[in-house]
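re: ur question from yesterday

yeah so i grabbed the chain u mentioned. its 507 aa long if i counted rite. heres the sequnce exactly as i have it in my notes:
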Amino acid sequence: MKYIFYLSLVVLLFTCIEKKQYISYSEFGAAGDGITDDFDAIIKAHDAANKTGIPVKANSGATYYIGGADKTAQIQTDTDWGDAKFIIDDKHVENSRRNIFSVETKLPVSEIKTVKTLKKNQIKLDLSLEYASVMIATDTFTMRYIREGLNQNKGTPQIDVFVVDKNGNVDLKAPIIWDYNNISRLTAYPIDDEQLTIKGGYFTTIANQGKPGATYYARGIGIRRSKVVIDKVYHIITNELDQGSPYEGFINIARCTEVTVQNCKLSGHKVYWAIGSANVPVKQGTYDTNVSSSTNVTYKNCKQVNDIHDKNLWGIFTSNYSKNLTLNNVEFSRFDAHMGVSNATIKNSIIGHQGINIIGSGIFLMENSKVFGWNFMNLREDYGSTFEGEIIIRNCEYNPLNGEKSDVFLITGSYSGMHDFGYKCFLPRKITIDGLIINDNNTIERYQGPKIFACFNPLYNNDSFVEKYPYTITEEVIISNLTIKSGKPLIVSNNPFMFRNVQITKL
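ran it thru and got these structure tokens back, copy pasting raw so excuse formatting
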């Protein structure tokens, strides 16, 4: 009888374990009172979930306080934060570079030693992998993005991100964009078969009190796994002082593919000033979401909690080295591609005071959207105002400076022809405007009409000017369904010589 009794207990125990649907933070000692530091309990809960494969669910109504310890909770299972609140206190942080949560794969990352070279647009690598992977290639001997201006630098090593299947076939929707005669490092980040979902949660960051110009703070949710959905996360910032250190992004996506951020509400950060590398004061970029070395990342149905037109707040979104970025039905103060984007789409969206700032390649599509910046689109002059590809503007509306007095430019930038950025620079080969309303009702004195291009280089106004690093100018602009509310004519540029060979086709 005793044997049967104990056997029944064992069966019951295993049945309970098997039926366990989720792990909660309270099981590991989280108080959820908004005062007790619950970080250790949160970390332990996710560690247990990762070992068993069970999802994590926050306790309803709880408020979790997270202090400044140099720790990270690793997420490897579905997580539901529901209506729980999280207070992230950045006043006294041991390591500003550590994320609070890091979404990780269980699959092994591998260094590829057999591939020695790569070519631009190469379609296959000679290798066999256990998993389809995100590949990141680095050449430390070739410098790109040699920045000019107040934040000047000596550039960064050549980096590219692309996706291959198990047989080494490259996903040509995100092609290789550089030649690699010497690969310093080639890393394969495996792509999981199953999607991981993280949803809910109301996060409040108590802003740091760091020094201006100091290291960027992470202290958010780092996505380091492919096939992830972030849903209904809400983030605000409080206690921003007159000075502080910048943030790289509360939702920070890197080294992955097929990530969707949806139904989220994020916040612009207060603008801080620091002394730049040119030894003069500059505004510090500080962001609430960031994409780096990733492909196929989508933001949809996301909004900025605070005012997208507030000039005291920096732009909310930035990216580097990424491909196939999509913003769909978002309201953000800024879309930014620092060190290049290859293929990007903004549709059904509203972009606020900091506008669209890009360099890169491929196709940039702007569709069914409104822009309120001082230009419709800016090609970043600190990186050569370059976009090697095509820009398409379809059924959009441009409200210069949100109705403040202004001149009106569709595409702005600057290029001296005397600086080596580490690559040849291009204006878009082709620009298509098919449906655009320009609300130029409050303009500067002697306003003559909206310009397609800004001046770009005032010295390049006759044949005597010779560029040390020649700029490739746009070949063709195709225009249809254009409405200019002022009734003024559309002008190619206030530097007509530089753009004299651009073919303008009006349909």
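noticed a couple things. The CA atoms of residues 2 and 297 lie 59 Å apart. also The two ends are 92 Å apart (CA to CA).
anyway ttyl
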